[in-house]
Amino acid sequence: xxxxxxxxxxxxxxxxxxxxxxxxxxxxxxxxxxxxxxxxxxxxxxxxxxxxxxxxxxxxxxxxxxxxxxxxxxxxxxxxxxxxxxxxxxxxxxxxxxxxxxxxxxxxxxxxxxxxxxxxxxxxxxxxxxxxxxxxxxxxxxxxxxxxxxxxxxxxxxxxxxxxxxxxxxxxxxxxxxxxxxxxxxxxxxxxxxxxxxxxxxxxxxxxxxxxxxxxxxxxxxxxxxxxxxxxxxxxxxxxxxxxxxxxxxxxxxxxxxxxxxxxxxxxxxxxxxxxxxxxxxxxxxxxxxxxxxxxxxxxxxxxxxxxxxxxxxxxxxxxxxxxxxxxxxxxxxxxxxxxxxxxxxxxxxxxxxxxxxxx
Amino acid sequence: xxxxxxxxxxxxxxxxxxxxxxxxxxxxxxxxxxxxxxxxxxxxxxxxxxxxxxxxxxxxxxxxxxxxxxxxxxxxxxx
Lengths: 360, 79
Hints:
The complex is a heterodimer of chains A (360) and B (79).
Chain A: E1 3-6, E2 9-19, E3 22-24, H1 41-48, E4 52-54, H2 61-76, E5 85-89, H3 100-107, E6 115-119, H4 125-137, E7 144-151, E8 167-175, E9 182-188, E10 196-197, E11 215-217, E12 220-222, E13 228-229, H5 231-253, E14 262-265, H6 270-279, H7 291-294, H8 301-308, H9 311-314, E15 318-327, E16 331-340, E17 342-343, E18 347-349
Helix pairs in contact in A: 5-6
Chain B: H1 3-15, H2 35-49, H3 55-60, H4 64-72
């Protein structure tokens, strides 16, 4: 049973960085490899709920995460020398090696006495990263942890993955004696690893000329560097697993989730999320959505909701949050906590050279 | 309105298929009924009938005919 609880730790603040550049899915063309020929761009937007996305062909996840971290550290007044650990959750690392967390330690000017690690997860990644940050800080052995989570500049040019937007978030986690902390539930089903996959560019299938030859997949011509999703498998997984994970968490720890102020779910597909809301009998007003303007931003999606959708309502106010991330792996995680989080304003990053290409 | 006719109307509006093709509609075999269309269709059915479909029923709902049987298990009369 993958339940855990960490006390004496809390979230100090959250920030998010996105490319300044906005693209509209209404500008896509049917049959060009971006959407199935069976859909007009209008129908695609209606069916998925994704109208606009923030994209960049140059900014990496670490570029956006760097911008978010700089804003957050300035806003909450942390001395960089006091940050004990940096965690980088992403499936779009800067390089095959080294770990991007190591690069960010230097780029952010953190102490060399710093724990730095990459965590290769997608949609569930922020919840997992948060649990690792909590585990490091809850004993007080480490006091301040910086969690960077997100995805950007994927393996295919952005028009070919029209569900996905680019974003990276920074979450500041700190030891706090007496803090209520966090309650987690986790799950994994690796038998579904092919349900969401970029088939080529890893060690198993390295990038080769054939990687870029489009073949038919679920009614759409796609090459092997695009994100392949078995729609029904993902849909079935999402509507089943997310509500179950929430219910398991509340049953295990014995609390009433209806007393919570906010329900932050990974943003996969607007209508799938609507069904999850119905299954859990939630008030839709307490379940913010960012799909329309940002698309699916992978492990950034949950903290991005705080920054872009409910900042005015929650900033520095004690609120109860229940968050659930679910997707690629297949992997899922749910966390419940009560905290007063500083939520920084959204950082929009333009494609100018000073924002990317760190020590190329 | 009978449930069969009501379901047919939902198929037409959610999937955009002609009324005369509804009764033969099957997941994937009907061009408009792909996985994205399925999410849309299931949402529309839940809204139209004011029910919350069980996840297993959503996954088994692979044709108009089967769907009608599945709906028969729900308490639609009192709605």
